[in-house]
Design goal:
The chain has 471 residues and is α/β, with parallel strands linked by helices. The chain has 15 helices and 23 strands. It starts with a strand and ends with a strand. It binds NADPH dihydro-nicotinamide-adenine-dinucleotide phosphate.
């Protein structure tokens, strides 16, 4: 049991305003594995006051000192990487094969990258006779989801601190353990009191109190599009800046002549990673109509070869979903795919053999999917791949762009042709032929996938205001 009875506010561990607690449930065993406070409006008030009080001094702290603090936090994460990864394996169900790198090690990389990039930002310039000055935006509320709990916090906290802002983190109630461990790391890193604060609680109370708070200058949110809409409207009453990283329904286009087996393997991997609970998951596989059968057979063979089971076991590739609600939601989508006439190639609504305990779902592949079906349009957030046939390249681009979302897209094909297609896609994160992805590039969606950027220089600049001084 990992119990964190207190909140981290103003540089110390403080008792929450109520005795209400949130149980953290292990996704594979369904047993309670931890507990954190259910913070509320009074706790938010206290954290915002602490963040506000620390604001001016932190903004005036030399950049080198702020970045040195980021370095210490990154080192602290790496020193506890195994322990952090284990917490995520339990609360999210991410396989231990990938958790230390993808779930926790990457958070340390994010702190390092922000420290490297921050000095490249030109904070002052003269335009004509006018001085333009960039300044920290102030008090930032970081509201984060459960699927990559520590990394999602890092991509907000690192740039905010680097740019001289103070932060209040509200982690997901389903996976808050690494946020508490990060607060311990930050405490040891010796940041001034109030620069980093942590208030756990549910979205409707702790989260919304932060968004509505008059003394919060900016909300940086990652989560579902539905919650993003709600946050935008609540934040509008105090006209505060909001950045949104929301859902996706990302296509992977296999162009005519591209190596089909490699592309399908990349699509399956990209769709099933973290049990499909990844916003950039390649959930729509677009192949030439004539290759639908071959693509489906290849995808099914791969899906059936993957080890599904206990995420703590070293050989497991697919663990459980995060909770019962998510499992039921994913099963409903599988049911709807069958009812709407898609061909179920492998997987289905029944739990995988021998896995009745834990929130497991069969890795599923649908073929003959059309854009009228819910499984082609809605974000499932589970291991469900939809294969869609296209007639020619224009048709592939049309289908890829026929979505309310525009987070990511992948293209396989001859490099020049793939680049030309990538330029036509309405999405923010494009990957050609499975290229390595740089986490110093700006990340953020088009359309209903979000507003604003994270990572890179653009991600840092979100935390700045700019003023013009005419002399
Ligand atoms: P939610 O939108 O349900 O929750 C995200 C966070 O917002 C949680 O901390 C939640 O609190 C909080 N919240 C909920 N309601 C409110 C509210 N009214 N006011 C303020 N805060 C609120 O998303 P999930 O946690 O279910 O995460 C999955 C979603 O996140 C997926 O749709 C996925 O696509 C998206 N996502 C997007 C990414 C991106 O970069 N674009 C990356 C990762 C995920 P609570 O603790 O109660 O849940």
């Amino acid at each position: 049991m990992q119990e964190f009875p207190r909140l981290y506010v103003g540089g110390e561990w403080v008792d929450p305003s109520s005795s209400e607690r949130i149980d953290i449930v292990n996704a594979a065993t369904e047993q309670v594995m931890g507990q954190v406070p259910a913070g509320g409006a009074a706790d938010v008030d206290r954290a915002v006051a602490a963040a506000r009080a620390a604001c001016a001094d932190w903004a005036a702290t030399p950049l080198t000192e702020r970045l040195a603090a980021l370095g210490r936090i990154g080192e602290g994460i790496m020193a506890r990487n195994d322990e952090l990864a284990q917490a995520v394996v339990g609360e999210v169900g991410t396989p231990s094969m990938i958790a230390p790198m993808l779930q926790t090690g990457l958070a340390a990389v994010v702190f390092g990258d922000n420290a490297t990039l921050a000095p490249t930002i030109e904070m002052e310039a003269t335009v004509g006779g006018t001085l333009t000055v960039k300044e920290p935006i102030g008090v930032v509320a970081a509201i984060t989801p459960w699927n990559f709990p520590l990394v999602q916090i890092a991509v907000k906290v690192a740039p905010a601190l680097a740019m001289g802002c103070t932060v209040i983190v509200k982690p997901s109630e389903y996976a808050p353990l690494t946020a508490f461990m990060l607060a311990e790391i930050i405490d040891e890193a010796g940041l001034p009191p109030g620069v980093f604060n942590l208030v756990s609680g549910d979205g409707a109370t702790a989260g919304e109190s932060l968004v509505a708070h008059r003394d919060v200058d900016m909300v940086s949110f990652t989560g579902s599009t539905a919650t993003g809409r709600r946050i935008s409207s609540v934040a509008a009453s105090t006209v505060k800046k909001v950045t949104l990283e929301l859902g996706g329904k990302s296509p992977l286009i296999v162009l005519e002549g591209a190596p089909l087996a490699d592309a399908v393997a990349a699509a399956v991997q990209g769709c099933y990673i973290n049990c499909g609970q990844m916003c950039t998951a390649s959930t729509r596989l677009l192949v030439p109509e004539a290759q639908l059968g071959e693509a489906a057979a290849t995808a099914a063979a791969i899906a059936e070869s993957l080890a599904v089971g206990d995420p703590a076991a070293p050989e497991t590739v697919i663990g459980p979903l995060v909770n019962a609600r998510q499992r039921d939601r994913v099963r409903d989508y599988i049911r709807s795919g069958i009812e709407e006439g898609a061909t179920l190639v492998t997987g289905g609504v029944e739990p995988p053999d021998g896995l009745d305990t834990g929130y497991f779902v069969r890795p599923t592949v649908f073929s003959d999917v059309t854009m009228e079906m819910r499984i082609a349009r809605e974000e499932i957030f589970g291991p469900v791949l939809a294969i869609i046939g296209y007639s020619d390249t224009d048709d592939a681009v049309r289908i890829a762009n026929d979505s309310d979302y525009g987070l990511a897209a992948m293209v396989f094909g001859e490099p020049d042709e793939a680049m030309a297609v990538a330029r036509r896609l309405r999405a923010g994160w494009l990957v050609i032929n499975g290229a390595d992805q740089s986490f110093t590039a700006p990340y953020g969606g088009y359309k209903q996938s979000g507003l604003g950027k994270e990572l890179g220089v653009a991600g840092l600049e979100e935390y700045l205001e700019q003023k013009a001084i005419h002399v």
